[in-house]
Amino acid sequence: MDGYACALEFDTTTTDFVRGVEIGRLWEILKNSSEAVEEVVHASNAEMVLRVAEATGRLARSEELDDTWLLVSFAAA
Question: What's the sign of the alpha-carbon dihedral 20, 24, 26, 31?
């Protein structure tokens, strides 16, 4: 999807590293805010999004934007 790219280019192209950074960022957002959160995440992180939602006690829903990206919405805590 045009417009969604890394703000900081990583010095590795390891997919697992990039996925981990994305989920770590999402985890921090959810742990530091009690408000509803909406984020665009890579589709390969769908399972981890569900795990983060469960671990933070938030309801989550997602919408496919295309074959690569999901729009994920988390309810307020």
Answer: positive
Residues 70, 62: contact at Cβ < 8 Å? yes
Which residue, among 70, 63, 8, has the nearest Cα to 41 in the 3D structure?
A: 70
pTM, rounded to two decimals: 0.83
The CA distance from 64 to 70, in Å, is: 5
* pLDDT greater than 60 at residue 9: yes
Per the CB < 8 A criterion, the answer to whether 22 and 42 are in contact is: yes
Instruction: Report residue 13 as tokens.
Output: 């192209």
Domain boundaries, the chain: 15-74
Cα(17)–Cα(74) distance, integer angstroms:
23
- Sole residue written with tokens 């509803």: 36
Pick from 35, 25, 38, 37: nearest CA to 77: 35
